[in-house]
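Check my protein:
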Amino acid sequence: MLDTANRPIFDEELNLFRDQVRKFFAQALTPNLDRWEEEGVVDREFWRACGEAGLLCPQTPAEYGGLGLDYRYNTVIGEELTYAGSSAGITLQSDITVDYIINYGSEEQKKKWLPGMVSGEVITAIAMTEPGAGSDLQGVRTTARRDGNHYVINGSKTYITNGQNADVIIVVAKTDPEKGAKGTSLILVEADRAGFKRGRNLDKIGQNSADTSELFFEDVRVPITNCLGEENRGFGYLMNQLPQERLQIASSAQAGAQRAFDEAVKFTKERKAFGQTVFDFQNTRFTLAALKAKLQAGWAHLDWCIARHLKKELTAAEASAAKLFHTELQWEACDTALQLHGGAGYMNEYPIARMWRDARVQRIYGGTSEIMKEVVARSI
């Protein structure tokens, strides 16, 4: 269980909210985890249940059906989701896609999409990555050509979270390819548009319950009014939103690291070897002690980042450093915990096996650890 008693950024109201989230996940999420892993997708019923419980897009203003809460509530949901052992794509909707519509959407777009995103009736995705363009978003080749009062979109995307379930996708496309990054726009594409096709649900190493897909756009026509914000301003919008995306990944990584540590402590205190528990060996205790010290520093650092983000002061370099530090810590914690489980750690019946698999991609998506180092280095 995550301890919030020593985290001053969370008050009594938020701690009560955390208890509600934890109880909801125990009832609606945990019993379904194995089935979702096998099916490769999370039920839409779970999305609607999250919406009914107030766990989707809590920062959405009340006039669009939301609760108008601050980012700490998103953090609580994301931490508890990861600690529960799930990779469901609800945090992508709550922490990433919804803010594009809140911050850059027209009044018509907000009224059309936000209420459904809050209720769970509408599932969203954002399509950035392409077969030839990952962390380097300037390399996007998908185009959106004007034709009268419509865009005609052509291209393909890959590794798109919520790709199988999404009702509407924020597509990163070049509206003026000759301008490079300055010719990038964000365009809303409804999943029922002619010419839009979903590819396969990709076969991944981990995070199997998160549907991750290829998406194809062949002469997909959407009205000009589907442009999110101003035309050719998309790259700037992406850069503005990246700090929160990377903070969300850092937050989930810290929670994942804590869960891995807790599993290791539980297992080593129960497992016997050579007449004593595995925990009683000095190597085990010293290994866990070193990890506990890093977790202690990690929680303090994460809360510092959240506090800065609430004041709109978290910089791109700081958010990148947070993603780098916390995802690397999560991997260390998961790998160490699996090692302390011995052969049992390699068995899927133990939670640590799934945690280990799921953690690996955290150092890749949202910007690889190597790209994070590059961003931080530029600020020195």
Notes: DSSP finds eleven helices and ten strands in the chain. The radius of gyration is 21 Å. The chain has a mean pLDDT of 95. The beta strands are 124-127, 143-147, 150-161, 168-174, 184-190, 196-201, 212-223, 227-228, 272-273, 276-277.
